[in-house]
Amino acid sequence: MASNSGFLDTLLTSPSTERYRVGFSLLFLLGVFIVVGQISEGLPNSMLLMAAAVIGGYMAINIGANDVANNVGPAVGSGALTLGSAVVIAAIFEAGGALIAGGDVVSTIKGGIIAADRLDDAQTFVWLMTAALLAGALWLNLATWMGAPVSTTHSIVGGVLGAGIAAGGWAIADWAVMGKIVASWVISPVMGGVLAALFLYALKRTVLYRDNLVASARTFVPWLVAIMAWAFGTYLMVKGVKKVIKVDFMEATLVGLGLAAVIFVAMRALVSRRAATMENSSAGVNELFTWPMIFAAALLSFAHGANDVANAIGPLAAINDALSAGAVVTSAAIPLWVMLVGALGLAVGLMLFGPRLIKTVGSEITELDKTRAFCVALSAALTVIIASQLGLPVSSTHIAVGGVFGVGFLREYLKSNYATQLHGIMDSHDDAERERLRPFLDDFRNASVEEMERLLQRAKKKKQVPLSKKERKRLKKIYREEMVKRSHLTRIVAAWIITVPASALMAATLFFTIRGLLI
Description:
Layout: H1 2-13, H2 18-39, H3 46-66, H4 69-77, H5 83-101, E1 105-107, H6 122-146, H7 152-168, H8 175-208, H9 213-240, H10 249-275, H11 282-287, H12 290-308, H13 310-325, E2 331-333, H14 336-364, H15 370-390, H16 396-427, H17 434-446, H18 449-462, H19 469-479, H20 486-518
Helix pairs in contact: 2-3, 2-14, 3-6, 3-13, 3-14, 4-5, 4-12, 4-14, 4-15, 5-12, 5-14, 6-7, 6-13, 6-20, 7-20, 8-9, 8-15, 8-16, 9-10, 9-12, 9-15, 12-15, 13-14, 15-16, 16-18, 16-19
C-alpha cells in the first residue's frame, strides 16, 4: 500500500511525467471539442460553441489545479492523507459535487458586476463571455505555475469586468459590487486566520499544554470534533446542496446539530477506547484527528465542486444559450454536456496539476500537524457560514490560506513569548548552576511549542534555568526562526491583489482580439 502510494505521488509530481500530464489534458480538451462538435452539428455558429467548450474545459482544469489545493492541502501537509490518496478523494468529491449539486441554472454574469442590458447584441455578449472565460483560465494557469493559490471566483469576476468594460464602456460595471469584492481581499484571509488561530490556541490550552494529555483529550476532543461536525453539516446545507435542497439557515443549523450529536457520541467512544494505549504526547493526540481531517477534505471538496464549477460552466452555458436563442441571457439552463465538461475538467486538473499547490498550501507555508490542519478546516467552514449570514463576500481560497497563515503566526508568537518568559526566569538566577542546567537548554532548544510550555512550567516551579549571556543570545536567535515563510506570504498576497485587474486586462485585450478576428 505504501509503495503504491509512493508511486502515485511520484507520478503526479515528477518533472519527468509533466509532458505526459500536459498531453493528457490536451487529449481531454480535444475530446471536448469532438463531442461538442457532434452535439452541435447543424446548429448556427457551432464552431464558436466548440471553441467556447474547449475554453470552458480549460477553465475547469485550471480551477481543479489551483483552487482544490485549499480543500486537501492541510490534510496532506499534516500527514492525514498521502498526496495520491488526497488527489483521488478530492477528484471524486469535486466531480460529485459538481454533478449532484452544481444546479440546473446558474447566473452567467458572475456576481452581477455588469449590466447585460447595456450590450448591443447577442454576438457582443458571446464575445464578452468567451474573452472572460479565457482570461480567467489563463490567469489561473499563470498563478498555478507561480505556486500562488488564488480565488477562481475573483479570476472570472475580473474577466467579466474587463471584457464588459471593453464591450460596453465604464458605465456597464456595478462599482458597488466591485467594492465588496475588493473588501473580501481583506475580510476572507483575516477571518480565516483569526478563527484558525483561536481554535488552535483553545486546543493547546485545553489539551496540548496539559500534563495528562490523555485525560484532557477524552474530555475535550469529542467536543471539538462535534463542533466541526456541526460546522460542516451546516456548511453543506447552506452552500453544498443549496441547489438540490432548499433550506433556510435555521434548518441547516438543525441538520448540523443532529450530525454533531452523532459524531460526539462516536468520538467519545473512540477516544475512550484509544485512551488505554494512546501515547501521552501531542503525537498521540494528533492521531485522533486523522479521520476528521479525511472527512473534512472530502466534504470541502464536495462543497467546492458544487459551488465553483459555475465559474467554468456559467459563462459556457451563457454562450450556449445566447447562440441558441440569439439573445443576451443573465441566467442559463445547464445542459448535461456542459455540466460534464465542468465536472470532468475539475477532476482532470486536480489530478494532473493540483499536487504542486497542494504541497504549497499543506507544507511550504508553515509546518502543519493534524491539530493545526483541523483548526484550518474548521475555520474554513465557520467563516463561510458567518460570512454568508452577514452578507459578506468571501473567497474560500483566501479563507483556507489565511487559516494556514493564522496558525503559523500563532506558533511564531507563542515561541517568541516563551523565549521572553525564559529570559525572565534566567535573569533572576545565579550563574553557578549553568553546567547542571545545560541539559535543560538542549531539551528546550529541540522541543515543540507544546513541550516548551511544560518545560517552562516545571522551570518556574523549581526556580531554575540560569544561563550565560552568550547562551541567552543564542536562544534568542533560535526564536527568530520564521515559522511562516515570508517569501510565500509576499507572493500569495501579491497574486491576490492583482488577480482581478490582471484577469480584467487580459479579458479586455482578448475581447478586442476576438471581435477583430470575427467581424
